[in-house]
Amino acid sequence: MLRSSRGGTRYPQWLRRLVYKLYTHRVEGRLDHTQVPKHIGVILDGNRRWARAAGGTTEQGHQAGAEKIRELLGWCAETDVEVVTLWLLSTDNLNRPPEQLSPLLAIIEDAVRDLAADGRWRVHHVGALDLLPDHTQRVLKEAAQATADNRGILVNVAVGYGGRQEIVDAVRSLLAERAARGASLGELAENLALEDIAEHLYTRGQPDPDLVIRTSGEQRLSGFMLWQSAHSEYYFCDVFWPAFRKVDFLRALRDYAARHRRYGS
User: Fold this and answer.
1) Is 37-162+207-258 assigned to CATH 3.30.470.20?
2) Could you give a single Gene Ontology term from the biological process aspect (predicted)?
């Protein structure tokens, strides 16, 4: 039997894989599929810290994070999730120096192309499209058009996304629409309802997220889906995004199913 330098038992890798597989199967077997969230939002956090811990570069961390997306969507499909929103790039990230932003955008563009080429998902962009470079805009538009008729999970790719910016854009769109109809500002103020703003969000027509998962141990939303997450459940996972495993995903679903959701209290 192997021993670690601290005197504890260090099991061989094949045995650890077997135990992990058995434990994952056990958690999955106990999952109540009637309590699975229909819309999951995921804040993919920890790519850079994962890379540093592994002795790699930031670009390698983002690439590993992009490759994890396909696994996540496969797990979602197995558990009957219908909508997944992936926060890939915030509006704050757009202020990074070009030497940092350009490689990240290239990785995101490749990830979006891969999602579209897979053939199983419907890809939809959420974010301020006009803030993105022309080539990134083109990739996002082409992915949405190519997958519009797919019947699989709706995958919202949040690129150039900020929760405050979304609300500003929604109000701006609402004002423009009502002005085009000839409505006055006073009439709009008098009759404004929550649904009026909701209909102009990036996710209009979609259900709000039931569950928001954030990886890397950070316990804040950072502006993610501020309007839509008013009644969402949150699950904060200590694992960096590239290291996120199926068992971590299943634990999040198990935790969600065990909660008693109370809307408005």
Assistant:
1) no
2) polyprenol biosynthetic process
